[in-house]
């Protein structure tokens, strides 16, 4: 009889392992679980080995064969993914009904979210190409060619799954010498997916920008879509939901034109000009001509005031003498 209690970790290593698996605002790069089925062909084994080289070190490779039927009961795979802390998986098998079978999938909340079964029609491994290879843990440039990727919801989910499978980490900036690897997925008219891998070579061009050439280095495979198991729309939206702290806040009164220039609208409230400090503002200082004109105007004003004062004093003196003469005459009388 189980008690239903949660067993807490005893060692520090166990506590660190549990802390690393807890949800985070910015998640760690996803690990991929690679495993073989009960029966595998040589092409499937070689394809899984090449995928293991591409995904290193974010990969967990199962060495023994596993008797798992993915579309009937995927519980063993979900348990293995949980114990190895993997959120992506590749499963290869081969049978008479479905030869060269390769399954890509991803896991959300310890359950399978999306799962797509491909059939390999043509495969060339890394060893078949004698060109120079890339270094380990190189972030690839992923390119999707073809207009049919956006025709149906199923193809859009497959595109998202492939992007999530080979995506390593988000980067804000990258230097030109850091671009070494290109993964190309081309969809044809009959919905065959052509996966090609190229190495980027920078050649001299006589200019500052080098000339770029692509050299195919493998692996190369043609994939046909067989069976799909996609999550419902509600579960898919829940899995794609981002924390509110990562969402960019919308900036009001900001717009961009066709050339990418930013235009903003500023709302200024009513201002009282009388309380503004304008004494030390350079934009309001008078020019030399204005100061000279003010000095001339002040001098003219002073001269006019002095002339007016002198005229007033002369007029006041003549009036006093007339008054005195009249008083004298009156006194004689």
Automatic annotation (TrEMBL):
Cellular component GO terms, alphabetical: nucleolus
Where's the Brix domain? 30-234
Has keyword Transferase?
Answer: no
**Low complexity composition-biased segments:** 302-316
Return the Acidic residues bias intervals.
320-333
**Where is composition skewed (Basic residues) in this entry?**
1-15
Keywords annotated in UniProt: Nucleus
The record's region (Disordered) falls at 1-22, 282-333
Q: Does the keyword Nucleus apply?
A: yes
According to the UniProt entry, its GO molecular function terms are: rRNA binding
Q: Which InterPro entries match?
A: Brix, Rpf2
Offer one Pfam family short name for this entry: Brix
Location of the protein in the cell: Nucleus, Nucleolus
Indicate where this protein is primarily found.
nucleus
Q: Which family does it belong to?
A: Belongs to the RPF2 family.
Q: What is the name attached to this protein's record?
A: Ribosome production factor 2 homolog
**Organism listed in the record:** Culex pipiens pipiens (Northern house mosquito)
UniProt lineage = Eukaryota, Metazoa, Ecdysozoa, Arthropoda, Hexapoda
């Amino acid at each position: 009889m189980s008690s239903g209690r949660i067993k807490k970790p005893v060692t520090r290593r166990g506590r660190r392992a549990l802390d690393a698996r807890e949800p985070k605002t910015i998640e760690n790069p996803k690990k991929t679980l690679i495993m073989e089925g009960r029966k595998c062909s040589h092409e499937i084994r070689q394809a899984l080995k090449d995928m293991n080289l591409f995904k290193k070190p974010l990969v967990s490779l199962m060495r023994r064969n596993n008797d798992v039927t993915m579309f009937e009961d995927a519980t063993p795979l979900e348990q293995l993914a949980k114990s190895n802390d993997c959120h992506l998986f590749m499963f290869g098998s081969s049978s008479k009904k479905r030869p060269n079978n390769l399954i890509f999938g991803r896991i959300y909340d310890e359950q399978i979210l999306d799962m797509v079964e491909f059939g390999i029609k043509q495969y060339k491994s890394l060893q078949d190409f004698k060109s120079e290879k890339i270094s380990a843990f190189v972030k690839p440039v992923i390119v999707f060619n073809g207009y049919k990727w956006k025709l149906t919801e199923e193809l859009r989910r497959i595109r998202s799954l492939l992007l999530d499978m080979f995506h390593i980490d988000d980067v804000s900036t990258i230097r030109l010498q850091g671009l070494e690897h290109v993964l190309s997925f081309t969809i044809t008219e009959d919905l065959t997916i052509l996966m090609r891998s190229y190495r980027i070579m920078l050649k001299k061009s006589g200019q500052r920008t080098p000339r770029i050439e692509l050299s195919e280095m493998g692996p190369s495979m043609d994939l046909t879509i067989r069976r799909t198991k996609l999550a419902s729309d509600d579960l898919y939206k829940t899995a794609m939901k981002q924390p509110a702290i990562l969402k960019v806040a919308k900036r009001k009164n900001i717009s961009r034109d066709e050339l990418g220039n930013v235009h903003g609208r500023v709302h200024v409230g009513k201002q009282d000009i009388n309380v503004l400090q304008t004494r030390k503002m350079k934009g309001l200082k008078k020019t030399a001509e204005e100061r000279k004109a003010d000095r001339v105007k002040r001098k003219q004003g002073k001269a006019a005031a002095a002339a007016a004062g002198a005229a007033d004093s002369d007029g006041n003196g003549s009036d006093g003498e007339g008054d005195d003469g009249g008083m004298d005459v009156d006194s004689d009388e």
